[in-house]
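Q: I'm writing up a methods section and want to include an example of the input and output format. Could you take the sequence below and give the corresponding predicted structure tokens, formatted cleanly so I can copy it straight into the document?
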Amino acid sequence: MASTTSNISEQSKNSTSFTSVKALSESPELTSIPPSFTFTRNPNDEIVTDPEDDDPIPIIDYSLLVSGTPEQRAKTIHNLGKACEQWGIFMLINHSVSKSVMEKMADQIFAFFNLTEDEKQEFAGKDVMEPIRYGTSFNVSMDKVLFWRDYLKIVVHPEFHSPDKPIGFRDATADYCERTWKVGRELLKGISENLGLEANYIDRTMDLESGLQMIAANLYPPCPQPELAMGIPPHSDHGLLNLLMQNGVSGLQVLHNGKWINVSSTPNCLLVLVSDHLEVMSNGKYKSVLHRAVVVSNKATRMSLAIVIAPSLDTVVEPAKELLDNEGNSAAYVGMKHKDYMQLQRSNKHYGKSVLDKVKI
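A: Here is the clean output for your methods example:
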């Protein structure tokens, strides 16, 4: 394992001389972050709502979508479409993933990150298509500024993968992912109907039977200078939806009407983010949400667990033909295979909607 405790000044010169931010943060000599982690902020990009304000994030009651009266379901579908169109994010309550299942999954994610550095390095990968990838920052070989986070990404559908450690990780992951996969597909039925399409339209055209489901777990360790570092810069995600669980430590912000909104970490709720491929498929009616992870504390460790609900890798994602006509509603995006989009994302700067912009017409 590369040394993370003996010479912080050497690490400042060589940004790749450590294996994880967690190991770096635990160094007794660390009193300031290495220059390679200093993130230059745009002053015009720092308008943040008062954290004392209540979150204005829309709230969707999942139970009304799947088991409400026809009137309740119709209203929920309307509100679901409104949230996707105006915000690109909503808080999902009364969903079918139990508190105990969520807590068990969170415990196992922490257990993975608490493995030794050598154990975690067994799962280090460079190619975006590898089914299990552990790493740090975003793309260490390309990033000019490193981000204060470690990550674990796992493909769990259509073929299930899992690290063989820690004990219990595989079972907890299989259970959690099966439940969230069902929730995501039910949400996409409501979204299809809101777009005026048949309920199974997105499921069918995006080939979700062979669709890509991924875990993206992020760890943001304590930082001695949180005001200088960035967990993840502003970005949007590939896929259709992103179902996010947090551990009670704040740090997520979303861009809405030119301002960054602090999103609290509410227990037992899932945050659902609209992703790039839903924007493309809806021909821009729904917008993938720009979001970022800020480092807000030098004491607490933040964890987030995203479940990516995405088309199959061979699906060409393009605007739904049923939403196009000869009256000005022409295609605003070119079609691209999902796997090609992922490779494009990996080879580009991870900032804003730089990848989505490449498929806009």
